Each structure stands twice: as C-alpha cells, then as structure tokens.
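User: I'm preparing a small set of examples for a lab meeting where we compare how different chains pack in three dimensions. I only have the primary sequence for this one, and I'd like the structure in token form so I can line it up with the others. Please keep the answer compact; I'll paste it straight into my notes.
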Amino acid sequence: MMTRSMLKIFQNNFPDNCPGNRRNHPPAGIMSGAPLLAASGSRRARRTIFRCLASGTAGLLLMMFFPGAAFPATASSGKAPRGTGGFSFSDDAGGFVLLSETVPDAILDIRYYSSCNFVGRRIDGYEEPVALLTREAAAALREVSDELVKKGYRLKIFDAYRPQSAVDHFMRWARDPGDAVMKPYFYPNLDKGVLFKKGFIAARSGHTRGSAVDLTLFDMAAGRDADMGGGFDWFGPESHQEFRGLTAKQRANRKLLRDAMTAHGFRAISNEWWHFSLKNEPYPRTLFTFPVSSRAVSGQKEAGNAGEGAEAGAIR
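Assistant: Understood. Below is the structure token output for the 316-residue chain.
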C-alpha cells in the first residue's frame, strides 16, 4: 500500500510536462491509475504514459506499485554519419568521465533513456540512464555543485553528452509528421513542421561535443525541483531565459542556476533556461559517436590500465 509520504514524493517529483503529471492531471486517483488512463484513449499513448513514469523517483515508485510498467527496448541507428562542415566524428571516449563519479551530489533524471521526452520513446544511443561529460566540463560542474549544495540545492541532470545517433533519431522523428504522440505535452502550440525553422531540432548538437549539459535545481528543503516556470524541453517562449511571464520566484530560481553556471565557466543560451555549455570546451570541432553507457568510459579505463601494465612489465 502506498503511504502518504510515498505519495508526496511521487507527486513532487513527477516530470512537469509528461503525461499523467500533477499539473496536467491532478494526483487524486493515483492509486487507481485514473490520471494515467485519462491522459489519452489510444493504446500507444497509454503505453507511453506508463513508460514515461518509469524515470527518476516516480519511476521507482511506479514499478513498485504497477509492476507491468517497463522501459521500451533500445534501438540502434547503425553507422555514424561522415564528417561534414568542418566537423570530424570520433568514437574515442578517452576524454570522458561518468558524471556521477565526479559530481556525486548530482541527481540523474536522464530523459532520453526513458520515454518521458518529446519523442515519446527511448532515444537511440542511450544504453544506460547515466550521464557522461568531458573531464573538463565535469570538473567545472563539480564546482557549481559544491557552491549550490551550500545554498541548499542539488543539481538535477536531464542530459549531458548526446551521441550523434541520438541527434539522427531526432532528425528522423522531426521529418515524420504522423508521429506526434507527445505534442500535447511538449509543443501543443506548434506545428511539428516548424521545429527545424525555429531551431528546436538540428542536424548537429553541442551536446555531441561532450561539454554541454541540461539541468535544473533540486530544492533540498522543499524536497522537489525548484520552480523554473516551465519544464525541460518545452518548445515555447516560456523556455526563454528572460520570458516576461515568470513570477519573481521563478526568475530568482533561473538566475540562481544561471549565475552559478556562468561563474564556473559555462555559457547560457537565450532560448533554453536549462542548457549550458563549457566556454573552453576541449573538443570544439569533434562530434562523438559512442553510446551513453558506463561501459564506454570503463572500457577506456581498462585499456589504459592494460597499457600501463604492459609498459611496467617491459621495464622489469
């Protein structure tokens, strides 16, 4: 049986702009699953709702009380594209680290591993719900985290390194006008055909260079995400840094995150309050292709250790 404290955690950590969340569907009836089924009458949408819930704290609770919920299978996008426009492609993860090892206080809510995202399914290249960053970006983010923890906040990470296969997945999705299952939750006021023109979808992403991160603040005293006045990956003016419809508290929360990030070497962008990239990124012209997986990084470590061992043996 779900206790009141469990229900509170469930409600407070529901992704803001996913089906069944506390804003789109009131939490009353959560025990019977009423808001989940009310989100849509289609079978596919209902499956998406259950999968969407299976991320973060809400996902853990859902799997306890609704055992039938599960993640969709990971898809593969095949070969990486060839370099164009002055960029080169690489599958070398030697300069990357697991973010959780460098920034242990960070909370991971990797939306593209789940189906709680604007596509409505797990995105190609996301093999594990982990976050990877270049060593330089991770070290800078550790400084941000240390500063904000003293103020009562933790960083919640939505996305970090994003492989080129994921960007290709977004491109295929954007070109399919019939695939709009998540439109009510991420871009209700836009026709899908304008996503390219407005810059929401592009063939290349700064995330693929490994030094960009999407994140928010988690208020430790309140036990929930700080109110930013809009959800992650919302395709609309509310996502702009200086959106005029924000409350004083929402503006203050955005400023707190932005000031901490820019003070430690990150650059903000005007149209997404959650997105920051390292100014002095180590790979400005390289797009990486290895998957989001702890194995991608551990494999580099093992190879390095093996090399050191062989060299030591030769010296002896």
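A couple of notes for your slides: The chain has a mean pLDDT of 78. The CA atoms of residues 244 and 298 lie 45 Å apart.

User: Perfect, thanks.
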